[in-house]
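Bit of a strange request maybe. I'm writing a small parser for structure token strings and I need a real example to test against, not something I typed by hand. Could someone generate the tokens for this chain?
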Amino acid sequence: MAFRPSLRSIWTLIAMAVVCYGLYLWAEFNIVEVKQPHYDQKLAAAQLMNESMNALAASPARNFEAIESYGDPRLDALVGQQFSTITTDIGSFEAKLNGLNPNFAAAAVQILLEAGLKSGDEVAVAMTGSNPGANLAVLCACEVLGVKANTITSIGSTWWGANDPLFTWVDMQRLLIDKKTLSAKAVAASRGGLDDAATGLSSAGRAELEAAAHRAGLPLLTAESADQAAKVWWESFKGAIKGPKYAAYINIGEGVASTGHSENGRLLSDGVHRRLPARNWPARGAMHLAADEGVQVIHLYDMTRVARNYGLGAPRIPLAEPGFGDVFTTERYDVRVAAAALLLALAALFTLIRIDAKYFRLADAGVDPESLL
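Reply from user aminoacidic:
Good idea to test on real output. This should exercise your parser:
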């Protein structure tokens, strides 16, 4: 008896299983790379950050005798020493590397867009010398999006930050503004460290912080306590705004004048906060004062977590080139292939059903279908 395909045939079912599994494999392994929303702006920000880092690496202001070489001039320019006369506290080398990834600027673009920021908005950016990479990433994101950034920096730095006394973060920002790479407005600076007054640093270190502010042409904010420093910072920010209200207050790191207390950085998750959650805050900083006036807060505290959340991958030496990471592209199944595979499987099944239906109609009519083969 000749073979006739039928859903009642075990060999037909085995053949169908093989065909369907082949179609599944076809769809499974046809993956396409898809650009994430705002790809062009993210890439522009990453490229601007990379360009800025190269400009800093070429600066003659760097203290070449004091730096350690990591084999990447961009890292050599922005990663400081573990200890210096203006080092204020311990810090994580991994977090510094994550912030220095040029693609961190793309993540910053994504965060600013999540906050609803648009061209022409003004933002207050509170920075420290501890995270030069994250500082630069945010300013590059603002530049690309047309957001106007007013900055205040606590100059002191934790381990491996911008702690070269002759090339602090305010020196770097001044250099990039002078080269017209960035258009952010530096409003003022403070010493940073404990109570935002560099308490515990040597007199030489404190003098170097004051000299850095003087070189950058910035007024040095002083206060007798962290609470007072927070008020001074917020009033300075408000004195610099041109519009009626800031669209966001961006805190980078754990500067005590901005956060109010070092523990507050950990009490607030990274990202956008339309309102600050109710917490038993140990103290209140400038970001709390901003939130009290209805200004949303963007908090960037743990650079390692931010990098992980936006798919930037693990930190590496040398640094990644612009355009690398899930923040730019994602992999998805090829919908055209998946649809074609589904249609072919349904067509095969429908054909077998029609053959079986025809067989049953002949049998009902008293015709032996086998006699027609």
